[in-house]
Amino acid sequence: MKYSQLTFENPNCKPAPPHLRRDQIIAKLKENFDFENAHLRSSSNNEGEGVLSKCYGYEAPDQAKDLGIYPYFREIEAMNGAHVTIGGRDVITVSSNNYLGLTNDPRVVEAGKTALEKFGTGCTGSRFLNGTLSLHKKLEKDISHFLKRDDTIVMSTGYQANQGTISCLLGRKDIAFSDRENHASIYEGCAVAAGKTVRFRHNDMDHLEYCLKKYRGVEGKLIITDSVFSMSGDIANLPGIVKLARDYKASILVDEAHGMGVMGEAGRGVTSYYNLEKEIDIYVGTFSKSMGSIGGFVSAHPKITEYIRHKASAFIFTAALPPASVAGVNTALNIMIQEPERIRQLHNNAAYMKKGLFDMGFQINNNPIPIIPIKIGDEALTLYFNQLLFDNGVFAGVAVSPVVPAFHAMIRTSYTSAHTQEDLDHVLHTFKIIGTDLGIISQ
Ligand SMILES: Cc1ncc(COP(=O)(O)O)c(C=O)c1O
């Protein structure tokens, strides 16, 4: 079915006014959005007004809803692998990070149920004081063993693992050297830390070296990078980072949120892919992607983990990861190790989509990562494209400024081992029709 035959059906939006045609909608969007200065323009500049006036003057989400292109907070009524139900309609999701399709695995669900019955719904306290369960300790042991690391701390989210670790390690005289495309939790950890942060250009080893040289005299240096960048799907240049860390006597923290379960031997991440496991001082991970749940962890030398355990506010002053999640993650980890065909299928699916999209004329990142951003550039066009995908049964992510620089807007797609051939072909077909009709690719 051709998208232009469809009406806007997003249950979270008012239907687009029928008298507005596609180019008028895009023109109207451009009028309303100021992507350089704010995500969605506020009608009030708040100068000299009360703290809350910015909220009352913030109308852009409503404007986007009126135009029928609001892409956020879609209400999912059911989830099953690569399919979700929204507004009573079955759609294929290409926006989830459930890389190994484990969220609905009966064994993972059963492990969660058993833990729920044995321990109840939550720990109602922090790991530090009263929330450390035998389940947490077992998972920590299993992760350490899997990653061949000495010790691991399981935390409540990956966000807190980054934020808590970085903020407690960076002392007043220390400097973090952080890739500009690092995750928000790394930015946040650096912002809260007492030490200074220097941001190096994305994956640019010459610039990192320039920065390290500039602060050569500083003793405490920590290079921080995502192993796989969540928006672009780029892989960090870990060999380059390791070399510079040696030359300039810096430590290294790698966030393997999108690397674990995807890259390296048995899914050990990009550090394993490059055979650099021994060179990385701190390995941070999350359970919200390949492990299909929630939670995060830090693996490092026991002297480092013991320090973090007693100093990281984001770990100490928050409730422990609940029993059902911990047990589910532990089972997911075991399944990942025992069923390597999942990772193979994931890579086959990613390669199939990259080839298909590339052959159509879209700009595609050329690596094995299952994150495929479709670069559109123009924000209004991107939001409109995204809505048309949704109307045609494809639920993709969208990244506009300030998540990406202004006029670098993209549709963010990600693939899993759970996508079937039929799913992937439907997604490709939909991209082709809409991309052609919007003039982004030619027929
Ligand atoms: C690179 C990266 N690091 C950390 C996180 C945070 O993980 P979590 O969802 O466990 O808080 C994310 C999640 O979006 C991520 O993409």
Structure write-up:
- It is a single chain.
- By secondary structure, the chain is α/β, with parallel strands linked by helices.
- The protein folds into two domains: 3-99 and 341-437, Aspartate Aminotransferase, domain 1; 106-338, Type I PLP-dependent aspartate aminotransferase-like (Major domain) (Aspartate Aminotransferase, domain 2).
- 40% of the residues lie in helices and 16% in strands.
- It contains 16 helices and 13 strands.
- It has helices spanning 22-32, 53-56, 60-67, 106-119, 134-147, 158-169, 184-192, 205-214, 238-248, 270-273, 302-311, 313-316, 323-338, 341-360, 379-391, 421-437, and strands spanning 76-80, 83-86, 89-94, 151-155, 175-179, 196-200, 221-226, 251-255, 282-286, 296-300, 371-377, 394-399, 409-414.
- The strands form two sheets. The chain has a seven-stranded mixed β-sheet with strand order 4-10-9-8-7-5-6, sandwiched between helices. A six-stranded mixed β-sheet has the order 1-2-3-12-13-11.
- Helix 6 (158-169) runs parallel beside helix 7 (184-192).
- The longest helix has 20 residues, at 341-360.
- The chain is globular.
- The two termini are 17 Å apart.
- The structure holds pyridoxal-5'-phosphate.
- The site of pyridoxal-5'-phosphate has 14 residues, from helix 6.
